[in-house]
Amino acid sequence: MKFKELPEGYYFIRGVTDFVYVEKLENPEAWPSYITELEAVKVVHDGRTYKRGLEIVDEMEVEFKTYEEVRKIRKARGASISHVTRRLNKNQPLKGKSLNLALDLIGGSSTGDQFFDGIAVKLKAGMPLSEYELHYMVDVRLVHARVCV
Prior knowledge:
Layout: E1 9-16, E2 19-25, H1 33-37, E3 41-43, E4 51-52, E5 55-56, E6 61-64, H2 67-89, H3 96-106, H4 114-125, H5 131-147
Parallel strand pairs: 2-6
Antiparallel strand pairs: 1-2, 1-3, 4-5
């Protein structure tokens, strides 16, 4: 279900990744205290656009998740990012899910940008990255990915 297809009512957006994680709120008077401090979203089907920060969430898929479920997803993603960081810092080749995560972070292997495509080729071949490429991956892309989890 897309976010804009949600039934009308109040929702609390727990997080946004590839999906929008929401929790349905029934009665505004009975909300837990953490909801009133943060902002709940009232979904109304009148053509408006819904955003979370700068990201428009209208066309994103919705999953109903509790706080604990979202926390587990973030923890697993953070652990994967840490694993990639450790392996890159040790100049070890990436394989499987770690390789896929690193390639996703730089946009795949056919971005049209010589720098990004060069990093992708080296990651796939298991070759060590140059000092600047390593800095870019570890100190820019992976830090940004961790902060955005």
